[in-house]
């Protein structure tokens, strides 16, 4: 079956209707529902896609630009905008760490009484065995075992409560600009 078999016989005679350039422009704008202002704001293929790890939105023109550029194409100083974001992020993680440390310290206060209460349970039977016992006795050893178990449980609970603070402190000691860029990308990805 040939291509010409599907077309009407007079297809070779028909010519397309000619339109003026202004008519074609009007049809294009109507078809895509664009005005002149919207057409200028269309996505530029030379700009990075957002959200992206290497993209920043210019505060002046609201266009995406590469994070490595110092200036946006509109002339806005992107490096300063990025440094301001970094300083705000840095203050935020330090404030979050301080708040976490304060909350954890409040949770650990009652645990200090457990340490205080377990001390006599361990020390008194040891003193009894050292100074007053005339022979081997099981009762002081059982009391010491109870004190050691109480002290061990309190130590494990303290480590579990203290672990997020230690992790946060380790992050504060080792974060870099790349950590900020990655965190910024994930926050933008979650928001967008």
Number of domains: 2
Low-confidence stretches: none
Question: What sort of overall outline do the alpha carbons produce when their principal axes are compared?
Answer: elongated
Mean pLDDT: 83
Estimate percent helicity: 55-70%
Largest sheet, in brief, is:
2 strands, antiparallel
State the end-to-end distance: 52 Å
The percent range for strand residues is under 5%
**Order of strands, widest sheet:** 1-2
Number of strands: 2
Helices and strands, in order, run as HHEEHHH
Q: Based on helices, strands and strand pairing, what is the structural class?
A: mainly alpha
Using the CA coordinates, give the radius of gyration. Answer: 36 Å
Distinct helical segment count: 5
Question: What's this model, at a glance?
Answer:
With 192 residues, the chain is mainly alpha-helical.
Which features characterize this protein?
192 residues; mainly alpha; 2 strands; 65% helix
Report what the structure shows.
This protein is mainly alpha-helical. The chain folds into two domains: 43-76, no CATH class; 79-186, no CATH class. It has helices at 21-32, 36-40, 78-132, 138-174, 177-191, and strands at residues 55-57, 64-66. Helix 3 runs antiparallel to helix 4. It is elongated, with a radius of gyration of 36 Å. The relative contact order is 0.08. The mean pLDDT is 83.
